[in-house]
């Protein structure tokens, strides 16, 4: 998964990638298959011992040759696996007991001038440890991550590779995906509407819907009769659509008066200038007059078209008779 994230009102861009390929510091956790937890505990000890508290779940073991075996350890049985070299771990995999995954992120500011690399480790959707290039080592996020962070920090070679990832992975891939992410532009669709159809001079909520845009950096302002409105403005923030595009709703609490003009102004990198959408507050009588005028104009066009059709038909028949 590759995405470019731009928080609202921020100049920071983040390139987030979920990697399925294991690297030395995460060899234990990255070999773990996605499964469902049923009361099993996993811990990495100070000497690199991996302890598995067995229950009724199935588990798998892989030896140095890559062979896999399955079995169901008795309830309450601890299976202790001694520390081995980085490339011949015997790794237990709980196929029905837990879910483990790693998320690697590259955060960019001003292109590649400032780059931050994060390697985040999750167990059952909860982050327990991370590597931060600004810190230079693994840090525990929860108590579960303390032995894991200590163990990974003891691997000097692997830790050196992690520190270099900000250059070998982040800056390198920035050049690769720059054309399809950094320069990608998708213009938003803007609509403005009131949430209530009640008469004027009553509290109402005006909604400015901005959808289908990329990147996520966008500015939305409200205006009433040409003056910017800052009070009573509420936003949902950026909402991801799942296809790289975003949407947001920016609402204005107002008591519309007859004749007032409300405008939603949107600025986005895909446009060279801001786009403004207006909504006019009409009273009931004014709306009736407007509808009557539109109806009369439409009816007049129909009569004009019918008369023109009859005239042309009669004129054509007259020429044929002569």
SSE diagram, text form:
Blueprint: E1 2-5, E2 12-17, H1 27-30, E3 42-44, E4 50-53, E5 59-62, E6 68-71, E7 78-81, E8 91-94, E9 100-109, E10 114-123, E11 126-132, E12 137-140, H2 145-153, H3 156-177, E13 189-194, E14 204-213, E15 219-224, E16 227-229, E17 233-235, E18 239-240, E19 246-254, E20 261-267, E21 275-280, H4 284-321
Antiparallel strand pairs: 1-2, 2-9, 3-4, 4-7, 5-6, 5-8, 9-10, 10-11, 11-12, 13-14, 14-19, 15-16, 15-20, 17-19, 18-19, 20-21
How many structural domains are formed by the residues?
2
Beta-strand percent range: 35-45%
Proportion in helices: 10-25%
Order of strands side by side in the largest beta sheet? 1-2-9-10-11-12
Count of helix runs: 4
Oligomer class: single chain
Distance from N terminus to C terminus (CA atoms, Å) equals: 78 Å
Main beta-sheet strand count, sense and barrel state: 6 strands, antiparallel
CATH domain fold name of the largest domain: Class II Histocompatibility Antigen, M Beta Chain, Chain B, domain 1
Radius of gyration: 32 Å
Strand segment tally = 21
Write down the overall mean pLDDT. 71
Instruction: State the CATH class of the largest domain.
Output: Alpha Beta
